[in-house]
Amino acid sequence: MTARLGGKRAFITGAGQGIGRAIALAFAREGARVIASSRTAAKMHDLPAIAPAIKPVALDATDGRAVVKVIAEAGPLDILVNCAGWVHTGCILACSDEDWARSLDQNATSAFRTIRAALPQMLDRGGAIVNVASVASSVTGVPGRAAYGAGKAAMIGLTKAVARDFIDRGIRCNALAPGTTHSPSLEGRIQAADNPEAMRKTFLSRQPMGRLGTVGEMAAAAVYLASDESAFMTGQVLIVDGGQTL
Q1: pTM for the predicted model, two decimal places
Q2: Does residue 209 carry a pLDDT above 70?
Q3: What are the structural domains of the chain?
Q4: In this model, does residue 170 exceed pLDDT 70?
Q5: CA distance 194 to 9
Q6: 165 neighbors 199 (Cβ within 8 angstroms)
Q7: pLDDT confidence band for 173 (50 / 70 / 90)
Q8: Nearest CA to 205 among 239, 244, 245?
Q9: Which of 148, 152, 181, 223 is catalytic?
Q10: Number of Cβ within a 10 Å radius of residue 235
Q11: Is residue 52 helix, strand or coil?
Q12: Does the annotation count 148 as an active-site position?
């Protein structure tokens, strides 16, 4: 163990599966004490057995009162990772008002809530905030991701605003922008397609490296952004996309 996050206390949303779960496990391996949250607590039941430093808590990050309560109970934090999100598939003509509102709420407003709740205590000790955005955002346009891209673009804007406002208070805030990453969420969308293999080939075709990213690769990038190795970095978007946006 390198203990790159030794002595740090981290709170992670969206830790039930995929990138969020991988981040929780990677942080624990690097010496952090981790509060892992998800709206589906059952998805995290095995985490303490794998990594005793992880404490799972149920949290719907779109519930403002619950966010305030759970983060207050978590105690002083050194690291906050916002990984909760939702992918809407479709162009603007296939996006209802409800889809649009849900995308902004789950992909951007949830991060607004957790940051607002955690910042007061983080200001007393300094800390790092990592917002898991996407290349489908202000970075680039991706077909069929109108609402999702808008939500993740808002998250990047929030990242830069928080970074600028608290740059002199010991707070760093950066965004991680993954490219197409193989996760339970992505696999679910593939299997839900009329032709799953054709859909898989479509996702692969936009990756110049010829493969999808892994949740472990995204977790490694999150460790870097949360650690003191990136101490001179704030308000930035770290793109890990296999060349998708070249």
Answers
A1: 0.94
A2: yes
A3: 9-180+214-240 (3.40.50.720)
A4: yes
A5: 44
A6: no
A7: very high
A8: 244
A9: 148
A10: 16
A11: coil
A12: yes
